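Exercise 4. Each item below gives a protein and its sequence. For each, produce the structure-token representation.

Item: 14315_t:CDS:1 (Dentiscutata erythropus).
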Amino acid sequence: MQLQMLIDERKKNNADFHEMSTSQKTLFWDSVATKINFEYGTFFREQNCKEKFKLLVKEYKNMAANSSENESPSYVTNNEVYQTSSAPTYHDSNSNNDETSNSTLANSEEN
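Answer:
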């Protein structure tokens, strides 16, 4: 919800954003933080929004660089590669039996 609002606000102002000065960008991110805080009762600052958006772009670029038509999609975060097609099994510690649940992301070693 908050993340989608962050993306939507930046997307809506994309053309203008690239023409903004540094101080105008600071005001832009401050207005985004204000909108998110008002809508969701949170306490984000302009720097939080700016850094989160930069991280999203970085992770998207890493994912795109590590994907090809012949491979399953993957993404890289914190120098670890995650394949979206593999599913490791994790033990549910809240369960009284030995049933396990599957995760949709698998951590694989980087080659």
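Check: The two ends are 35 Å apart (CA to CA).
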